């Protein structure tokens, strides 16, 4: 599905975020299918708010300009659940009241109706990340790395058209981190998803292989503010 | 995307109408008759005659003073006991253990607590029996006014015993705020004693959170009816129970005077609230300069013990009172001065239980109905408002608790009468809802706001609709607090005396109205049994709230109660 059509990919079209009238960050770029844009910045630089804006969760005290366009479709005014943007957080956030398998089945689109088929798809997703047979387990009994892998498959089963990663590797220890990170990027590339990665770990940025942008904490210092613009096309 | 501020959502509007509507209508319905206007009874001109009649009632000043004094004193004493105890013991094992005992006491209805207390401290009560006749020589109950004492001491004590658990749990909830535990440690590491740390560092931060509950306690205690009837002075009674007497008098013209009296009650309660706010300002002005004086109050062993004693006393008194209810309901004969019944009888209890069945059924229907509606509304309101600030809304929701019930129930009763709801289950349920909803919202808003918002984000980014996120993710994650809220709401509904009495118009009889009526009668056994039945509803509710999540999530480690 990797194509070079002019509309494909995730376009952040002249986005400016303001908090209480003060500009917080601006960004203007396009992330092609299968490629990764890494945004690095200290806390307070507005990177979480950027992800919130793209995914459809921006808090009302923020004001935003610009558009989010995914594969030619303007998402800016759509509710979160219609955007087809997969989100991964710092922690895996598996729903603690469901089993591992239920977590995955929750993500499957309702167009896939038959229970057995849903079950099979979820089981296969588990096997894909080396967790075959973990379906009946309580998510709380899985290790951090295993939980992150389940969370990744949960995100992908919802058939997203783009991925937003909010420091999803920061909760893992060093040895697991590289492994899980490679898995995420490999799967995203295979599915041809544009990926926006937010992190403050230099290594994450290097491993992503794409372009890296740094946001500087600025808004409160003076008139300069975080700016990043790029066209990876 | 959610709505961008601006217009309020449907749930907010609905709840506002539900709470403010009856209160305002009720107030209007009280004010008009107070000035002589009550067309239903043929009074269609305004006059100050009702007030003239009110002022001419004997002992009116004493009644008003009793309401003001007992209510304010009980509230101040309760608050002091709670704060001093929390300061001295927060974070210790003792604290945790006592917490476990105090929480269930919150759900004991006022009337049941007052009846149990009467059995304990009356001249013919358990305490006197324990020391008679061997120490006192009494073979008959002494003729001292321990209950119904003219100063209202017994009543004040009864109120304290009930308000301490409430204020304590409110304080406990406030202590759950982030970082409070760290502040306690920070204080200790700077060499401050426990109590000094609490009063100088923690209390100034959490006080805004317990302020509304304190004000609600004052408004309630200055206008309480059931506790006053059971424990309070009789010659004259405090203002509130006298008003109810006039309102229910067969002589309908007394209603105008009763309405004028309800306005006086409003004045008494707001006077007490004002007095508290003055005291608060005074205490603040005196204490603020001392915050940074460096006194660390490191030696506090004595102070800590004296902080524990009142709390232990209240626990002991309440537990004994509840136990006495059980003993009395099983006693066949128990003559003074025997410490325990001479004869026990299960049959008589079962007979009484049989007779009490219908009123228990009515209580259950109203409690479950009110709790379901209140919990549902609270959930709807919280979901609809998302994570918006609830500060101003909270004051509005608390409004019915900051006014004396009697002030607007008189008027409300009239509107219900006109609407044909007076004396119906629906009417009583609606009236209960006004007082039940604030507690439901209070119980649910903290857990709701503590729920990690990213669960909902994760679910909607997976394509789940808002309804699916609510029913499949948020509601199950909050199952325990939702059930606890339901139980709290059912307990509050069960404890309602005045709304049931006024709106039920004697045709809707619950175990609470029945037990207050029986408390003044001679049959202690029946009174004890009805008081026990009052406990049954909250007990069942809280048991369910503990069992259901434990069963539903028996295989989910992260859903277990963290302790």
General description of the model:
- The complex is a heterodimer of chains A (233) and B (563).
- With 233 residues, chain A is an alpha/beta fold.
- Chain A has a single domain (10-231), classed as 3-Layer(aba) Sandwich (Rossmann fold), CATH 3.40.50.300.
- Chain A has helices at 47-55, 100-107, 115-128, 144-157, 174-190, 202-208, and strands spanning 10-19, 22-31, 36-41, 62-70, 73-74, 85-88, 162-166, 195-199, 211-215, 226-231.
- In chain A, the strands form two sheets. A five-stranded mixed beta sheet of chain A has the order 5-4-1-2-10, with helices on one face. A five-stranded parallel beta sheet of chain A has the order 6-7-8-3-9, sandwiched between helices.
- In chain A, helix 4 runs parallel beside helix 5 (174-190).
- The longest helix of chain A has 17 residues, at 174-190.
- The two termini of chain A are 16 Å apart.
- Mean pLDDT of chain A is 84; it is low at 218-233.
- Chain B is mostly helical and 563 residues long.
- Chain B has two domains: 7-14 and 346-563, MetI-like (MetI-like fold), CATH 1.10.3720.10; 59-239 and 298-344, MetI-like fold.
- Helix content of chain B is 73%, strand content 2%.
- Chain B has helices at 10-34, 49-55, 60-89, 93-106, 110-121, 126-131, 153-175, 180-189, 194-221, 226-231, 239-247, 254-287, 301-330, 346-385, 391-402, 405-418, 425-450, 453-461, 466-477, 479-495, 498-504, 511-519, 524-552, and strands at 37-38, 43-44, 331-333, 343-344.
- In chain B, the strands form two sheets. Chain B has a two-stranded antiparallel sheet with strand order 1-2.
- In chain B, helix 17 runs antiparallel to helix 20.
- The two termini of chain B are 37 Å apart.
């Amino acid at each position: 599905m990797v194509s070079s059509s002019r509309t494909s990919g995730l376009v952040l079209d002249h986005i400016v975020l303001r908090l209480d009238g003060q500009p917080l960050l601006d960004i203007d770029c396009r992330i092609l299918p299968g490629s990764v844009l890494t945004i690095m910045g200290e806390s307070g630089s507005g990177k979480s708010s950027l992800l919130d804006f793209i995914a459809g969760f921006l808090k009302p005290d923020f004001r935003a300009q610009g558009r989010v366009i995914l594969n030619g479709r303007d998402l800016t005014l759509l509710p979160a659940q219609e955007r087809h943007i997969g989100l991964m957080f710092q922690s895996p956030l598996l729903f603690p009241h469901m089993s591992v398998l239920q977590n995955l089945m929750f993500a499957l689109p309702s167009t896939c109706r038959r229970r057995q088929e849903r079950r099979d798809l979820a089981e296969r997703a588990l096997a894909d990340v080396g967790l075959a047979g973990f379906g009946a387990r309580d998510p709380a009994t899985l290790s951090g790395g295993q939980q992150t892998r389940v969370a990744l498959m949960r995100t992908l089963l919802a058939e997203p058209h783009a991925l937003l990663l909010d420091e999803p590797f920061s909760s893992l220890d060093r040895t697991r981190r590289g492994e899980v990170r490679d898995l995420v990027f490999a799967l995203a590339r295979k599915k041809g998803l544009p990926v926006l990665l937010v992190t403050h770990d230099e290594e994450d940025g290097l491993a992503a292989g794409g372009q890296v942008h740094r946001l500087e904490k600025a808004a409160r210092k003076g008139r300069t503010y975080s700016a990043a613009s790029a066209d990876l096309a | 995307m959610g709505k961008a501020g601006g217009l309020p959502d449907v749930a907010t509007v609905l709840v506002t109408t539900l709470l403010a509507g009856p209160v305002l209508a009720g107030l209007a319905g009280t004010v008009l008759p107070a000035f002589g206007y009550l067309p239903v009874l043929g009074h269609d001109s305004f006059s100050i005659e009702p007030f003239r009649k009110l002022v001419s009632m004997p002992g009116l000043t004493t009644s008003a003073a009793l309401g003001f004094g007992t209510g304010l004193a009980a509230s101040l004493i309760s608050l002091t006991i709670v704060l001093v105890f929390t300061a001295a013991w927060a974070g210790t094992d003792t604290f945790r253990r006592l917490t476990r005992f105090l929480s269930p006491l919150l759900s004991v209805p006022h009337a049941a607590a007052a009846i149990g207390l009467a059995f304990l401290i009356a001249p013919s009560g358990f305490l006197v029996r324990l020391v008679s006749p061997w120490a006192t020589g009494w073979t008959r109950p002494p003729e001292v006014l321990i209950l119904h004492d003219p100063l209202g001491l017994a009543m004040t004590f009864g109120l304290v015993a009930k308000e301490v658990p409430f204020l304590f749990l409110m304080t406990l909830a406030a202590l759950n705020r982030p970082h409070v535990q760290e502040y306690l440690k920070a204080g200790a590491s700077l060499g401050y004693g426990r109590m000094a740390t609490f009063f100088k560092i923690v209390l100034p931060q959490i006080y805004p959170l317990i302020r509304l509950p304190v004000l609600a306690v004052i408004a309630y205690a200055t206008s309480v009816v059931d506790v006053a009837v059971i424990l309070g002075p009789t010659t004259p009674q405090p203002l509130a129970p006298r008003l109810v007497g006039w309102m229910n008098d067969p002589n309908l013209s007394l209603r105008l005077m009763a309405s004028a009296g309800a306005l006086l009650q409003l004045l008494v309660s707001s006077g007490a609230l004002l007095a508290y706010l003055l005291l608060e300002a005074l205490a603040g002005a005196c204490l603020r300069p001392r915050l940074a004086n460096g006194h660390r109050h490191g030696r506090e062993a004595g102070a800590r013990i004296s902080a524990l004693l009142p709390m232990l006393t209240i626990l002991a008194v309440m537990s004994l009172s509840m136990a006495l209810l059980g003993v009395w309901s099983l006693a066949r004969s128990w003559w003074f001065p025997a410490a325990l019944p001479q004869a026990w009888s299960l049959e008589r209890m079962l007979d009484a239980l049989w007779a009490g069945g219908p009123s228990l059924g009515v209580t259950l229907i109203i409690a479950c109905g009110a709790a379901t509606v209140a919990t549902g509304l609270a959930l709807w309101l919280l979901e609809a408002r998302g994570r918006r600030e609830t500060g101003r809304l909270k004051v509005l929701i608390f409004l019915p608790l900051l006014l004396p019930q009697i002030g607007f129930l008189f008027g409300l009763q009239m509107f219900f009468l006109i609407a044909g709801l007076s004396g119906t289950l629906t009417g009583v349920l609606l009236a209960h809802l006004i007082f039940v909803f604030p507690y439901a919202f209070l119980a649910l808003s903290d857990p709701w706001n503590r729920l990690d918002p990213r669960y909902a984000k994760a679910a909607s980014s997976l394509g789940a609709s808002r309804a699916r996120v609510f029913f499949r993710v948020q509601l199950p994650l909050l199952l325990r607090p939702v059930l606890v809220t339901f139980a709290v709401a059912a307990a509050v509904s069960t404890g309602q005396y005045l709304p049931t009495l006024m709106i039920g118009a004697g045709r809707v009889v619950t175990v609470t109205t029945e037990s207050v009526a029986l408390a003044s009668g001679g049959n202690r056994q029946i009174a004890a049994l009805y008081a026990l039945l009052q406990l049954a509803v909250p007990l069942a509710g809280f048991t369910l709230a503990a069992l259901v999540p434990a069963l539903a999530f028996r295989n989910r480690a992260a859903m277990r109660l963290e302790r």
